[in-house]
Specification:
The longest helix is centred in the last third of the chain and has 16 residues, at 175-190. This protein has one domain: Rossmann fold, CATH 3.40.50.300. Strands 6-7-8-3-9-10 form a 6-stranded mixed beta sheet, with helices on both faces. Strands 2-1-4-5 form a 4-stranded antiparallel beta sheet, with helices on one face. By secondary structure, the protein is an alpha/beta fold. It has helices at 41-48, 78-83, 101-107, 122-128, 130-134, 145-157, 175-190, 202-205, 226-231, 233-240; strands spanning 3-12, 15-25, 30-34, 65-68, 71-72, 86-89, 163-166, 194-198, 211-216, 219-225.
Length: 242
């Protein structure tokens, strides 16, 4: 099991956002995190990455715990979690304006997954996203939104992560660019990369993702495989607003 979350509760200061969230991601799986805006998806990602501490919202509930690659990483700092092999493509991309594309891909290069089937470096990212090769000398703030998203994915991949997390993977991107990102994720899946992805295009996600988790008001209300989600369109209407 790559990731196991047990009874996670967290939030911001006095505001509780997540309540008793438990799920697992097996090695090599692609799992999506779905839900309307404001349901706690980004909060969950920040909790997984150690940016938000766990809270015990109810004295009768067991304490929360997070396990990554078999280790109990509860309470670890974000940098320690990152070094253990978790990488995030953050919402908003957060590319550095004063670094070139190539500098992004060399400054963050690391080997955090020795057992990976495919090792990533700048040249392999350029094969995955040829447009970035054309922009190799451009600064981060000279790229389009789609190019910045490709760069953010490439920047995460060159760390050779065990688990890749994408927060709002295709938000605000043109349809052709969205399709390019999804094809990238499909290729990564075939290479055995474990992925947790947040996105809203359910009809496209069910084509390649293995399982799906739906959040509603900070709680998991449904988990299941793509076929089950595809067959029960009432879930889409009830929880996803489509």
């Amino acid at each position: 099991m790559m990731l196991r979350a047990e009874h996670l509760s967290s939030g911001y200061d006095m505001s509780q956002v997540l309540f008793d969230v438990s799920f697992e991601i097996a090695a090599g799986e692609v799992v999506t995190l779905l839900g309307r805006n404001g349901m706690g998806k980004t909060t969950l990602v920040r909790t997984l990455f150690g940016e938000l501490p766990l809270k015990q919202h109810n004295a009768d509930m067991p304490e929360g715990a997070l396990y990554f690659t078999g280790q109990n990483v509860t309470g670890w700092t974000p940098d320690r979690i990152a070094r253990s092999g978790m990488a995030i493509v953050p919402e908003g991309r957060q590319c550095f304006p004063n670094l070139t594309v190539r500098e992004h891909l060399t400054a963050f290069a690391d080997q955090r997954n020795p057992g990976a089937q495919e090792l990533w470096d700048a040249d392999k990212v350029f094969e995955l996203f040829p447009r970035l090769r054309e922009r190799a000398r451009n600064m981060g703030n000279q790229l389009s939104g789609g190019e910045q998203q490709m760069l953010a994915i490439g920047r995460a991949l060159v760390t050779n992560p065990r688990l890749l997390i994408l927060d709002e993977a295709t938000e605000g991107l043109a349809p052709l660019v969205r399709e390019e990102i999804w094809q990238c994720l499909s290729r990564l899946q075939r290479c055995g990369q474990t992925i947790l992805v947040i996105d809203k295009y359910v009809d496209r996600l069910i084509r390649f993702a293995d399982r799906h988790i739906i959040l509603e008001r900070g709680r998991i209300v449904w988990q299941g495989h793509s076929r089950a989600l595809d067959e029960d369109r009432s879930l889409w209407t009830r929880y996803l607003g489509v």
